[in-house]
Amino acid sequence: MNRNLAVGVLTAGLFLTGAGVALAQANATNGDVGAAASWRKIPTLKSSGVKFKNGSYVFEAPGPKHGAFHWKGDLQDDSAGDGHNVYVQVKVEGYSWNRYNGKQKKTVHKDYLTWDGAARYTKDAWIRACRDRGSFRPDNCSETKHYKR
């Protein structure tokens, strides 16, 4: 009977130790992945006919938000009479540009998460604002901003 009691106590102790380690691992913060992310400012991105203002970004933690580059701001058609659309381009390491269209003659709020589905979290991201000048002329874009986690 004492042997069964000792085995039971040992089993319970090992189970609780494993649960404690798992909980500590889940709550631990990695050196380059912050647990409590804070929003940072994106300076106004502008080029002829387009402006991305009031921008901010955060690198999300791994989990429900995929460790994504989360960005938001107001995309403005700064030359409403030219007949051209505007857009924001965002990319993360290893992928090509993602395009987020605006509306002609308007300012629209954008709030998106961009991430690498094959990685636990995104380390590098680039963002720029552009004006679509049609098929025969190249688009013009603002300076590309690069952000690191």
Averaged pLDDT, please? Answer: 84
Low-confidence stretches: 21-32
- Span from first to last CA? 57 Å
Shape designation: rod-shaped
Strand-pairing-aware structural class? alpha+beta
Q: Could you tell me the radius of gyration in angstroms?
A: 24 Å
Please provide a written account of the structure.
The chain is an alpha+beta fold and 149 residues long. The protein is 17% helix and 40% strand. The chain contains one helix and ten strands. The chain has one helix at residues 2-27; strands at residues 40-42, 45-47, 50-59, 69-77, 85-92, 98-101, 107-114, 124-132, 140-141, 145-148. The strands form two sheets. Strands 1, 2, 3, 4 and 7 form a five-stranded antiparallel sheet that branches. Strand 8 (124-132) and strand 9 form a beta hairpin. The longest helix is centred in the N-terminal third of the chain and has 26 residues, at 2-27. It is rod-shaped and about 90 Å long. Residues 21-32 have low confidence and may be disordered.
What order do the helices and strands come in, and which of them pair?
Blueprint: H1 2-27, E1 40-42, E2 45-47, E3 50-59, E4 69-77, E5 85-92, E6 98-101, E7 107-114, E8 124-132, E9 140-141, E10 145-148
Antiparallel strand pairs: 1-3, 2-3, 3-4, 4-7, 5-6, 5-8, 8-9, 8-10
Short description:
The chain is of the alpha+beta class. It has one helix at 2-27, and strands at residues 40-42, 45-47, 50-59, 69-77, 85-92, 98-101, 107-114, 124-132, 140-141, 145-148. The protein is 17% helix and 40% strand.
